[in-house]
Design a protein that fits this description.
The structure is a single chain. The protein is 75% helix and 0% strand. The protein has 497 residues and is mostly helical. The chain has 2 domains: 22-210, MFS general substrate transporter like domains (Growth Hormone, Chain: A, Up-down Bundle), CATH 1.20.1250.20; 282-497, Growth Hormone, Chain: A (Up-down Bundle), CATH 1.20.1250.20. The chain starts with 24 loop residues before the first helix and ends with a helix. Mean pLDDT is 83; it is low at 1-12, 14-18 and 263-280.
Length: 497
């Protein structure tokens, strides 16, 4: 089969003869493990502020603003460091073992947190927990993309985003509940102990039940083991169908090697470690990464614009916006829970549309909604003295909800779907590593520079800049982002060459 010939339904890894829901149950059940790895990331986002406030009440002295900021950012710092490490070790580790490693750090960080309440211990434990985030968020979308049926691949990756939002809402809700009559020195212990059973569950599932990714095994030069993994995932598919799937994967890798070597498929090369005796060095691995220029531009561009369209800043103003709109301080404390619920509803509504409508339409629609919301926020915050009296208070609250909904329709889930699909197999782990590093680093940058930018430009001007970035995003998606709906990963590789 030529490298440009599309897979037929009878030879596709993900449609083949094994199309019934019952025969796919193993795939769906295994999906829950990386999905719950995402849940633990979202839970950290939702619980960190309330847990730190509770911890502050139990320390011998009140934390300084810098200490509070550092502790709030500790897990993101750890995630960024882990993403850099995963860039180098993700490919040899494999998706399955990387998820196991991430869950181990989730578990270790949560257990060590309980040894507090000294500031140093909690900071280190939160940093360790963040290492778990970095490894998990690098490997989870890769693993899901490589085991999922093609007609639900986008849905499952987007559903992982929904698990992140469920984690956020769980964190917000648990802290709100614990504030009702539970002592402060117990609140943070309970909230930061919750991930322990989830971490153990993900670790055990991936260690004792889930197989390695068949595509990763092919890349490592282990087609026999890849066939065994595929048989486990799709037990009702015929032997001929599964063997054809493995043959297509091997053919895709062979053509990739030939392209890198400048020869014919099957020629020897030094570009890949997937064949015994293939001598791969660091320079060649970088060359492989940058050989996928179209995928790299689309993927990294989406990750950058996901942050630069202002999500961290807009969410930063949730509570203060509710207060400015006339809500009491006590009521405004529940604003995060309201926004989290909105994010969850919007995500659950968008998930079924990913494989039905396609990636690009949802990105364009979601970004357009964000643009409208940011224009309203720009006008609202541009009022003299930030006065949100009358109709503008309602309009700004509406704009916040609209922005969150637009983000969860487009950038939120679709970015992770696309960066899991676009990169070719030979550089998928490294390319996604770059994307994850950019994601956490830009998130941290936007968060840390938010205060100085507001002081220098004002809230309205900053929201106006984000609106402009939405316009840039629409142009970028229209020019650089391809549609991957209904295509196998091998077909996407061929399309982007």
């Amino acid at each position: 089969m030529s490298k440009t010939e599309p897979l037929t339904e009878s030879t596709s890894l993900v449609t083949g003869e094994d199309t019934s829901v019952s025969s796919r149950m193993r795939v769906y059940l295994i999906f829950l493990a990386p999905a719950f790895a995402g849940f633990q990331y979202g839970y950290d986002i939702g619980s960190v502020s309330g847990s730190i406030a509770s911890l502050d009440n139990t320390l011998g002295e009140t934390m300084t603003a810098f200490q509070t900021s550092a502790l709030t950012s500790a897990s993101i710092i750890g995630a960024t460091v882990a993403s850099i490490i995963a860039f180098y070790v993700g490919e040899p580790l494999g998706r399955r073992r990387e998820i196991i490693l991430g869950s181990f750090f989730y578990f270790l960080g949560s257990v060590l947190t309980e040894a507090g309440p000294t500031y140093g211990v909690v900071f280190v434990s939160r940093f360790i927990y963040g290492i778990g985030i970095g490894f998990s968020m690098h490997a989870a979308p890769l693993y899901i993309a490589e085991i999922a049926p093609v007609d639900v691949r986008g849905t499952l990756i987007a559903l992982k985003e929904a698990f992140i939002i469920v984690g956020m809402v769980t964190g917000f809700g648990l802290l709100a509940g614990l504030e009702q009559g539970v002592k402060a020195d117990i609140q943070w212990r309970i909230s930061w102990a919750l991930p322990i059973p989830f971490a153990l569950g993900v670790m055990c599932t991936m260690l004792f039940i889930a197989p390695p990714s068949p595509r990763w095994l092919v890349l490592q030069g282990k087609p026999t083991e890849a066939l065994a993994a595929l048989k486990w995932l799709l037990p009702q598919a015929s032997e001929e169908t599964l063997e054809a799937d493995i043959a297509e994967m091997v053919s895709s890798v062979s053509h990739m090697k030939a392209d890198m070597a400048g020869g014919e498929a099957g020629d020897a090369c030094s570009c890949c470690a997937c064949v015994p005796g293939c001598d791969s060095d660091e320079r060649t691995r970088w060359a492989r990464l940058f050989s996928a220029k179209k995928a790299l531009i689309a993927g990294i561009g989406l990750v950058a614009l996901q942050q630069l369209t202002g999500q961290p800043t807009v969410l930063y103003y949730v509570q203060s916006t509710f207060e400015a709109a006339g809500f009491s301080t006590a009521a405004a404390k529940n604003a995060d829970l309201i926004v989290g619920a909105t994010k969850l509803i919007a995500t659950l509504l968008s998930v079924p549309l990913v494989d039905r409508l396609g990636r690009r339409p949802l990105l364009l629609a979601g970004t357009s909604v964000m643009f409208v919301a940011l224009i309203i926020l720009t006008i609202g915050f541009g009022l003299e003295g930030g006065n949100l009296e009358g109709g503008w208070s309602t309009a700004v609250i509406f704009a916040l909800m609209l922005y969150v909904s637009g983000y969860q329709l487009g950038f939120g889930p679709i970015t992770w779907v696309l960066i899991s699909e676009l990169f070719p197999l030979h550089s998928r782990a490294r390319a996604l590593g770059v994307a994850v590093i950019c994601n956490f680093a830009l998130n941290l940058l936007v968060t840390l520079t938010n205060g100085p930018l507001v002081d220098a430009l004002g809230q309205a001007a900053l929201f106006g800049i984000f609106a402009g970035m939405c316009v840039l995003s629409l142009v970028f998606v229209g020019v650089y982002v391809p549609e991957t709906k209904g295509k196998t990963l091998e077909e996407i590789d061929a399309m982007l060459k």
